[in-house]
Amino acid sequence: MFTTTLKKTVLFAAMALAATGAMAADPIKIGSVLSVSGPAAFLGDPELKTLQMYVEKINAEGGVLGRKLELVHYDDGSDAAKANSFTKRLIESDKVDILIGGTTTGATMAMAPLVDKASLPFISLAGAVVVIDPVKKWVFKTPHTDRMASEKVFEDMKKRGITKVGLLSETSGFGASGRKETQTVAAKYGITLVADETYGPKDTDITAQLTRIKSVPGVQAVFVFGLGQGPAVVTKNYGQLGMSALPMYQSHGVASDEYLKLSGKAAEGVRLPTPALLIANALPAADAQKAIVTSYDKMYKDKYKVDPSTFGGYALDALNLSVDAIKRAGGTDREKVRAALETTKGFVGTTGVFNMTPANHMGLDLSAFRMVEVKNGDWVQLK
């Protein structure tokens, strides 16, 4: 009788342990919606490659809290409506624990209401300030905002005595928001926008807008706000019109070697704000971001045989912030993870050092931007 009871006890204990082990082994599901194809593909493709590479690395090192990471991703084709649809699938069918993505501002804003309704932590990879201002309880982001880009550019212009600027912005969500923010902060830096032109993200010729800016009396520089292939078209048209005597500034939406390839020699002299990753190997040894950006740079090159981009860096920061929050939360309880993200302090990423608060779901300041100029077909940091 005792032996039978003991056997049953041991059996039940073994079953309980097995069940506990199975539960502990359940993967942590990282959902992702990225623009891997379409006009924003050169942003979304390195984002996906980065997530895949680092999920593999983290799993090889034992996972997170003893659990493997599982990346569940969809390509929205640079279509905000598809981003909305895939987000719904990730929430309802895939039942992900956290969401990374929204390559573009349009996609992010289409996803945001769904994650809010589902109470799901979401880290966006889009640039516009509207993503986190006003603050949305469940939405965070890793890239610098368009407002910050304008301020960094205007700081440089002010140093050079530039006060009259022609603005050329894309009609996309990112470009439209950038235009608005540029208009908002210009006066703070003593800048007058003497021209205000726009172009479509699929436009293949923007010479008419540039010609109008060039003809404005007293214009001292051109500031272009857009992403994808559009800014490269602008740059090539700028070169064709012989406008090199008029300084051109771009936003962080083109902080990628792909922009140099698409623009060619016309990009010479272009200035823009960028995360440290773009100049990783030129950073001094004492720079707080040196280790993370050079490690990412080498790992990406070794695996994919191409240079990484700052956009992939945004994805890496989002993944690392997610992992850090899950560890500090002790699991995947959504509210605990959200609270952990919101209290992130001194977290060094490729984009900058993150210090988030309930009132700031990005946590970066202007020091996270480096001003660079294209010289001899490469990026050089401005002093």
Question: What would your notes on this structure say?
Answer:
This protein has 2 domains: 23-144 and 290-368, Response regulator (Rossmann fold, 3-Layer(aba) Sandwich), CATH 3.40.50; 147-274, Response regulator (Rossmann fold, 3-Layer(aba) Sandwich), CATH 3.40.50. 44% of the residues lie in helices and 17% in strands. It has 12 helices and 14 strands. The chain has helices spanning 2-24, 41-60, 80-92, 105-118, 146-159, 173-185, 207-214, 230-240, 257-263, 290-304, 310-329, 334-342; strands at 28-34, 69-75, 98-101, 122-124, 139-141, 164-170, 192-199, 221-225, 248-250, 271-274, 347-348, 353-354, 370-375, 378-381. The longest helix is centred in the N-terminal third of the chain and has 23 residues, at 2-24. The chain is globular and about 65 Å long. Mean pLDDT is 93; it is low at 1-11 and 13-23.
Number of helices: 12
Residue windows where pLDDT falls under 50 for at least 5 positions = 1-11, 13-23
Q: What is the CATH third-level topology name of the largest domain?
A: Rossmann fold
Largest sheet: 5 strands, parallel
The fraction of residues in strands falls at 15-25%
Number of strands: 14
Order of helices and strands: HEHEHEHEEHEHEHEHEHEHHHEEEE
- Name the helicity range: 40-55%
For the largest beta sheet, what order do the strands appear in spatially?
Answer: 2-1-3-4-5
Instruction: Please identify, by name, the CATH architecture of the largest domain.
Output: 3-Layer(aba) Sandwich
Mean pLDDT: 93
Structural class: alpha/beta
The first-to-last residue Cα distance is 84 Å
Domains counted in the coordinates: how many?
A: 2
Shape: globular
Give the CATH level 1 class of the largest domain.
Alpha Beta
Radius of gyration equals 23 Å
